[in-house]
Please model this.
Amino acid sequence: MNLDKVIAGFFIILAMTINFGFFYGDMGSLETHSKYELFAAIIINVIATTLKLGDKTQMGSVLLATSLVADIQLIAAAIIWAIVDNSYTMNQEVIAIIISLSGGALLANFTSVALYIAETIKAKR
Model:
């Protein structure tokens, strides 16, 4: 068993599940979406991204790209939430933007997990 692959797989799947936990809930209300869960999703996604940096294969490049997309979208959601929370009133449009950005990151995480599973199945023993 390759411990590096286990750790990388753990963080890739954890990033997706934590992001899903934030994303799931009422689209029109932030009460069902925790800012701490969004913060955890950002941290875990950044860890998963750093674990993908050393892979020099084509699949590694695609996995890194999906991770960077998720990072950018989650960070953008947090920035928008922080700016609006401190400067403006939170309305339905802003809430939808925050949750939609998380949904885009979730799709990137799902793609990353699917590619990781495909690579694992394809790997020779």
